[in-house]
Write a structure and sequence with these properties.
Elements: H1 2-12, H2 14-45, H3 48-51, H4 65-70, H5 83-91, E1 106-115, E2 121-129, H6 131-136, H7 152-158, H8 162-170, E3 185-194, E4 200-210, E5 217-227, E6 230-239, E7 244-246, E8 253-255, E9 258-262, E10 268-276, E11 282-291, E12 297-301, E13 308-325, E14 328-345, E15 350-358, E16 361-369, E17 381-386, E18 389-394, E19 399-402, E20 405-409, E21 412-416, E22 419-426, E23 429-444, E24 465-479, E25 482-495
Antiparallel strand pairs: 1-2, 3-4, 3-14, 4-5, 5-6, 6-10, 7-8, 8-9, 9-10, 10-11, 11-13, 12-13, 13-14, 15-16, 15-25, 16-17, 17-18, 19-22, 20-21, 22-23, 23-24, 24-25
Helix pairs in contact: 1-2
Length: about 500
């Protein structure tokens, strides 16, 4: 009966039936082709001879095999963020050296655009490999002629010197023309240094802000000195645009007579002079900051044109030199130090931040709260390193403060934290970070710029008081079955 109805329908509407048959057949054919391509991709992913050698293939998190099988757009043009960090710190790092013989980073089928003379632009499929690394995993191509060997760029990617690594992640940027208000742009080098007896410390910021490089902008050096039982003193040196020397390829920065220079061995030379904001005092900083190998944070945020970014080239560092206030100098010899780099638009932005030594471990935690997210909380992270580099990343749901302290700010008593705790459990890994505040200072950001390069006084924050703290950090927990514990000193920031 069904067959008879089908035949009569074909005879009654032959053209319509032909179109339906053709469409159905075309759809089936396309599905067969997509499934065949997906199956080939899956087989390729399991065959080291086809994917470029080796025994293990690392792909971006979230790649769906079913999407690859059906040819969905989600399987195209994927990439691995911070690929060089993963290569240097994990896959080719010293922690996995007993188990990993060779690692070969590869890019295949990447879409790029080639700009030709005359203004024409052509889409191009590109691939990239490190010749020596590809050879090490047994996937070097057979050469018919010529040579295929590493160049200087390959060497800088796989084995950068400390100075080359710092230039790559610590260089300056230019604000995008697409920013709604380029006047809110700010970028800065930040250092802190602690005395050997842990009783005195200083915060040092080299700031460039405004419509860089062709609007209203300039540079500023801000230095604050602190001590147990000693009132903070704030010093500033403002620099016109003509006296600012910055680079979008190197970490060096010059602000008048002050400068931050990366030495050939990767140490930072930091020198500055500034005058007291509300007094006649003068401060001189002359330090050499030495980053610990592999103790850095690759950062969050994009490169040129991004709204904001943050990297930590020297999460654990030592400082040697002197800081002189009113002609009285204090010497620093291998004392605790830290350096980070921030850029972006900061109007209305608040953050939680902290960095501390805890025995043989170094801890960084934080989150940035944009002005349009006051109804919710941005996610926290805790980043842990040891002598071999990156150790673990945790994601606590919250930071629990006890506001047991009070500091005066502009005639107002502002409650500030006396303790804080961060806790996280990720599978078998656990973390507990306890902070005990020994000293706190607060700044009303509605009236002045903060010491970390905040925007102008009209920020109108819901939490207007920027709180900088120094104290003890106690770390405990387990990572990959090993006990993690330590105690040391750190610096922390929040808003109230």
């Amino acid at each position: 009966m069904i067959l008879r109805l089908a035949l009569r329908n074909v005879a009654f509407k032959p053209w319509r039936s032909a179109v339906l048959f053709l469409g159905f057949g075309f759809g089936v054919a396309v599905m067969i082709v997509l499934l065949s391509i997906g199956e080939a991709m899956v087989r390729q992913a399991s065959d080291e001879r086809l994917i470029g050698g080796g025994d293990v293939t690392v792909l971006p998190s979230g790649i769906d095999i079913e999407v690859m099988q059906t040819g969905g757009l989600g399987g195209l043009f994927f990439s691995i963020a911070h690929a060089r960090f993963l290569y240097l710190q994990l896959l080719a790092g010293p922690r996995l050296a007993p188990d990993v013989r060779a690692v070969a980073p590869q890019i295949d089928g990447r879409l790029i655009y080639l700009a030709a003379p005359g203004g024409a632009t052509y889409p191009v499929r590109a691939m990239g490999e490190i010749p020596s690394a590809t050879r090490a995993v047994g996937a070097a191509p057979a050469l018919e002629a010529g040579a295929w060997s590493d160049d200087a760029g390959d060497r800088r990617w796989t084995a950068p010197t400390q100075a080359e690594l710092e230039d790559a992640i610590d260089h300056f940027h230019l604000p995008s023309r697409a920013l709604a208000d380029r006047r809110t742009w700010a970028e800065w080098h930040y250092f802190n240094v602690l005395s050997g007896d842990r009783r005195r410390w200083a915060f040092i910021s080299f700031i460039v802000a405004g419509e860089v490089p062709d609007g209203r902008w300039g540079g500023e050096i801000r230095i604050t000195t602190h001590g147990d039982g000693i009132a903070p003193r704030r010093f500033v040196a403002r620099v016109p645009p003509g006296a600012v020397r910055l680079s979008t390829t190197h970490a060096d920065l010059g602000l008048g007579a002050g400068h931050v220079d990366v030495l050939d061995d990767g140490r930072y030379a930091v020198r500055a002079t500034a005058r007291e904001e509300r007094g006649r005092g003068v401060v001189l900083v002359d330090l050499v900051v030495t980053p610990a190998p592999r103790a850095y944070f690759p950062g969050v945020g994009g490169d040129t044109g991004s709204a904001s970014g943050y990297v930590v080239p020297a999460l654990r560092a030592d400082a040697t030199g002197r800081i002189c206030v009113d002609g009285t100098c204090e010497r620093f010899v291998g004392t605790q130090a830290y350096h980070d780099h921030n850029w972006g638009t900061w109007r209305g932005v608040t953050w939680e931040w902290g960095a501390a030594r805890a025995g043989r471990y170094t801890v960084l935690y934080g989150r940035v709260q944009p002005p349009d997210s006051l109804s919710g909380s941005a996610p926290l992270f805790v980043y842990l390193v040891d002598s071999l580099g990156f150790r673990a990343l945790f994601r606590p749901e919250r930071i629990d403060y006890v506001d047991g302290g009070v500091v005066p700010v502009g005639g107002h008593a502002v409650r500030v934290p006396s303790r804080a705790v961060l806790v996280d459990v990720r599978g078998a890994d656990t973390l507990r970070l306890e902070l005990t505040v020994e000293d706190a200072a607060a700044t009303d950001t509605r009236r002045s710029r903060d010491a970390r390069g905040g925007a102008e006084a009209d920020r109108r924050l819901v939490l207007p008081y920027f709180v900088q703290m120094k104290g003890r950090a106690r770390l405990s927990g387990r990572v990959e079955g090993s006990l993690v514990e330590g105690d040391g000193t750190g610096f922390f920031e929040t808003y109230r």
